[in-house]
Amino acid sequence: MSLTIALLALVIGTYSLRIAGPALRTRVAISPHIDKVMGTAVAVVFVALVATSSLLVGKDFAGFAAPVGVTVAGVLAWRRAPFVVIVVAAAATTAGLRWMGIS
What we know:
mainly alpha, 4 helices, single chain, two-stranded antiparallel sheet
């Protein structure tokens, strides 16, 4: 029963937040400084997520293959390569390094 209540609370909260964005967009004015800070915050959170997921497996170091694959993906994204090329190149780089024995 408590799982159902928690699930309903999450559903209602998520739905409320999704409605609040478009509903408040025209009513709330965000300063350019706050908009810039929020854009930077998104980038920082994304980099932290990528770093922790590519550098760690559990509590241990993931090895060198995954970070090199992520770096290849980052360089290709920076050079504005197509998404499919980015994914295939990163996966191929990581797989190739692991095949050569570099974990």
